[in-house]
Amino acid sequence: MSLGFQEFTLAEEVLVETFTEQCEAWLAEHGTRSVASSIDDDVWGVGDFSVSVFHDMAFEEEEAHLSALRQWNRQKAEEGYHAIVWSEDYGGLGLSQAHARAFGRVERRYQVPDSHELFSVTIGLMAPTIQTFGTPEQKDRWIADLLATNIYCCQLFSEPGAGSDLASLGCRAVRDGDEWIVTGQKVWSSGAQFADYGLLISRSDVDTPKHKGMTAFMVPFDTPGVEVRPIKQMSGGTSFNEVFFSEARLGDEMRVGDVGEGWKVALTTLGFERDHSATGGGSGRRPGGSWQQLRSTAEALEVTGEPVVRDAMMRLYLHLQSEGHLNRRAADLARGGTPGPEGSLGKLKWTEGMRKMSDTVSAILGPRLIADTGEWGTYAWGEHVLGAPGYRIAGGSDEVQRNIIGERVLGLPGEPRVDKDVPWRDIPK
Question: Is 273 in the active site?
Fold first, then answer.
């Protein structure tokens, strides 16, 4: 299914250079150039050395950050730079992924707000999901506002008893005329405390097998009966939340996709998430830090001559290079369509790269990783090491990704399931 994107052609490739010059001129007028000439030219000891995977800001600081990010995105929206590959119907430019990458390369040379999970989810997951499953009225109502971040939207998928086995979820949606009554709990909902909407996957039929009895809804967070509770993380932040539904009523016009189609909606959204995570979609730095930041740390501490460190850095560099080639190839294959299993390959590659980066920086820093010596750009890596394991779970665990690759790429038989044809209500909880 097309998402209203334009496919890449050789003629467009010729025009990318001209487009890049236009982007440079616009950014020079509306932004401030960084001290570093590019994202790959950090100046040691200058600026914000951020290598965290998840934000660990105080509530007010995170709220201000999202506000600044929204303001910058709206400014880009005036020229269509916020949605380069989207069609003009939604405020975009209708150009190719090559044009989007070109703008991103130039933008990273300027002092712009770093991306945020909620920002990325809103633009990279929710907008294409609504485009795929929404009615014409829903597309007109939400897509342009999602892309411009006039509204923020988070995921409401996982539950205390339904994580990797998402199809086991039990948050109930019971039809009552033209409305649905929602009761239950969601957890690990990134950015929910700042979101305007959430995409909810609910259990609408308990008498069918678990994969068939789900329905998706867009939930306004000001709906009576919806409560958000932030969760304190070991990194100090509160990026994740619990969301409780106490007989919250939703009109049927908030339903996304057909009744019972929730599993299909969820899989498509998760596919967009894997693609977006692997390619580091959004503005600013990719979460978890860059190769240049790690190399600068090693050079500043004068440990690049140590054989163990050099070997670890070499292996990490080769991994990141192959990851970049894989992600560019996957983006070219997708061309704006519904995501395929290549997203799982990209996500596995990314999470493995984050693990390698954690191991490498541990070898570089040693005790400095857990004891703040006051040296610039050293102790901050602790946020990376604490946060990186979370991305092995977010968007589907590594084991789930390997199952997808095995079944959909290699054609291997699926894992046996004893509950395949069992109604959800009869599955032991």
Answer: yes
